[in-house]
Each structure stands twice: as C-alpha cells, then as structure tokens.
Give the backbone structure.
Amino acid sequence: MDAVKGKVWRFGDHVDTDQIIPAERLVSENLDKMDEFIFEKVRPELAGNIEKGDIIVAGKNFGCGSSREHAPRSLLQAGVSCVVAESFARIFFRNSLNVGLLLVECPVEAEDGDELEVRPEEGKVLNLSSGAVNGFPQYPEFVSELISAGGLMQLIKEGRF
C-alpha cells in the first residue's frame, strides 16, 4: 500500500455519519455528487475547498451513527485519501475497508492546513508541518490488498476474492 500525503482537515470526537453526509442528500439523483455535500452542516466550506489527497484527522469514535456505506464513499468521492482518528465506530471502519478508504487508528496532533504523510507499510504518520511522528499497527496483508485494490467489490470483479 502506497504512502499518502495531504493537507489536514481537523475534527473532534464523535463525528457521526450524518455529519459526514446528511441523510437527506442520499437520494438517487445525488449519488454521483455526494462530494458536494460532505460536512455541509458542520463545515460547509470543506466541500468546495477539499483537494484530492487531503486527509481527515479526528478524535474518538469517528463515523458513529448509521451503518450507511455512503459516508466513506462520499469521502472518497471528494478526494480524501485517508482518515486518521483515535478510534472509529466499528461499522464505519468495516464499510471504509469494503470501499477502499484508508483508515489509520492512532492519536495525531495536527491542525487544519498541516501537511501529513501516512506510510501504511511502515506504520507511521508524519506531520510534515511540525515534525511529529506517530506510529500505528500495520494492517494484515489481506486488508492492505483490499484497500489497495479499491475495495471488496473491485477484488470480486477481478476474481481475487
């Protein structure tokens, strides 16, 4: 799994899936443009300013709430390369792996605008703005393959699952 580098968008604890993508936006005519609505109720400026490769950094229990896979899909659609948080809601964690969104579970000191580099193969998060380095447990090989492939459906389509 390749390293990712991007600008930080910082959030606190208990960011729920309705904050990530509001339920009323999950109608069929919006599914190809969910990225336009991410965090619209809590950080409306984010959708228009996020860039491909940017990284979400959060506290505890990121992705709590409903079990909809739209939340991690909308983050990918917006260009988010990785979410780094102290902890994740379990269903969000599983849905993210299934759609190929890289998640890193470790506390990281970072502010909006900092630049992070996440090195999954080394189990390291480097804050390029402050010089801080944090470690995290590396994924097992099959999980790394799942994320690298772009998720479970992609592995199935390729006949690798």
